[in-house]
Design goal:
This protein is of the alpha+beta class and 436 residues long. Helix content is 31%, strand content 32%. It has a 20-stranded antiparallel β-sheet that branches. Helix 6 crosses helix 11.
Length: 436
């Protein structure tokens, strides 16, 4: 069904930039980049899927059933996203908040062209119908000397607004704390939206700038016609590797410092912060329970608890939870039983999602959903869409959202500052954006 040809490339960084530029001719693109973060669960350095042969677009109604049918029928690589609002397909929930982005709740496609990069090896995996174009496409990518930059004339500054202001944010966090003190929940991720209206951005240029600032392990550039996801995500939601599934939730954030001693102090403080560790451990327990729904008895394991990792802009507390599943377990069922991810909801999960819907001011959509792929053998890998810019080109609407975990020990002012820290890279990129 697919023909594979391998090539050696000397300047892989140049090739990565060129291949993403080359892919802009297609209306369906998923680009996944690990930015040279090597872990035991890294499968590739970068992966490009483009040019849909078939696709599925769905609202939340019966979305997982439709996806399972599509994935099992296609028996091929499929790439796409799961929006946060698929929660409504898993539980008796609704999404009634404001939505200007207007992304579908679910989108996957079967690409004619896949290009995988590992080290200096580049593998073209093309459907047979276009396999005679592999050599031509490879030469076309190599012929691209530089990635064009957005031209300077007609500078249009981007005015970023907040969906709710600081005082209103504090009020809503206090309401969430009231739910916690009453015992309705013990943790919830509360998010807020930043947006710009009547705005045009260059999606590829914006993604490249965001990725350069953040260099995250789960970077994503997704295009669905005139809708874009530009993500600098540091977090893996769920990966299936044979009979093993792995989740790596993030909870706990501290800023970086340019001063080495101060940076180490900030990292150490995060490592020993009781509140941050409590947040992380609560979500680890939730992930363990989610994975247990499909896991073989006794196989759920916490491989790492509260490890602290350093990224370009922040230190993060990351845990790794894994489990074994039956060989005949349906891949989509594993995702359905763990979705949405605990790090973006809270605990107990359903109660937290109800309160989130009540207190947040926007429909999350793709934000805090997941982008990734299914392989032909049923393996899959998905990130968490955070630290991301979402763009509806037709509506000229740009959005990015940030959040933090609210627990009984949360201080609203500190949570607000954490949100601003997480928003820094997206704001910086957009405020420096230019329309040529």
């Amino acid at each position: 069904m697919r023909k594979e040809i391998n090539f050696k490339v000397d300047d892989i960084l140049k090739f990565k930039a060129a291949v993403l530029e080359w892919a802009q001719q297609f209306e369906e693109i998923v680009w996944l980049d690990s930015n040279e973060h090597e872990t035991r669960y890294t499968s590739f350095d970068a992966l490009l899927a483009a040019d849909a042969l078939t696709s599925i677009i769905s609202d939340s109604t019966d979305a997982f059933m439709n996806l399972e049918e599509y994935q099992s029928r296609t028996k091929d690589w499929i790439f796409g996203y799961l929006s946060y609002d698929l929660k409504n397909d898993v539980e008796n929930l609704t999404s009634d908040n404001f939505d200007e982005l207007d992304f579908p709740d679910l989108f996957f496609f079967q690409p004619k062209r896949i290009i995988s990069i590992s080290g200096t090896e580049v593998c073209f995996k093309y459907l047979n119908m276009v396999s005679d174009e592999i050599e031509t496409d490879f030469k076309s990518v190599l012929s691209l000397k530089t990635v064009p930059t957005v031209q300077e004339p007609s500078v249009v500054p981007i005015r970023i607004r907040m969906r709710i202001f600081k005082d209103e944010y504090f009020k809503r966090v206090h309401r969430m704390l009231a739910h916690i003190h009453r015992g309705d929940i013990y943790e919830a991720n509360f998010c807020q939206e930043f947006y710009a209206e009547d705005t045009e951005i260059e999606p590829l240029e914006t993604y490249q700038q965001l990725n350069a600032i953040s260099k995250p392990p789960f970077a994503t550039y997704l295009r669905l016609q005139n809708q874009y996801v530009l993500s600098a995500s540091p977090e893996r939601y769920l990966k299936k590797l044979g009979d093993k599934v792995i989740s790596q939730p993030i909870k706990g954030t501290a800023r970086r410092s340019s001063q080495r001693d101060e940076d180490q102090r900030l990292k150490s403080t995060l490592q020993h912060d009781e509140k941050e560790r409590a947040e992380n451990i609560m979500i680890v327990d939730l992930v363990r329970n989610d994975l247990a729904k499909n896991a073989l008895k006794g196989s759920v394991t916490v491989e790492e608890l509260c490890g602290v990792y350093s990224f370009e802009q922040v230190h993060q507390m990351v845990s790794t939870v894994s489990a074994k599943v039956k060989a005949n377990e349906k891949p989509v069922d594993i995702i359905k039983h763990t979705f949405p991810m605990g790090s973006m909801t809270g605990a107990p999960k359903v109660s937290a999602m109800k309160i989130i819907e009540e207190l947040e001011s926007f429909k999350r959509g793709v934000y805090s959903g997941a982008v990734g792929y299914f392989a032909p053998d049923g393996d899959f890998d998905f990130n968490v869409i955070i630290r991301s810019i979402l763009y509806n080109q037709n509506k000229r609407y740009v959005s990015f959202s940030v959040g933090s975990a609210i627990t009984a020990k949360s201080i609203p002012e500190n949570e607000y500052e954490e949100c601003l820290l997480k928003a820094k890279a997206m704001r910086e990129v957009l405020e420096e954006s230019r329309k040529g």
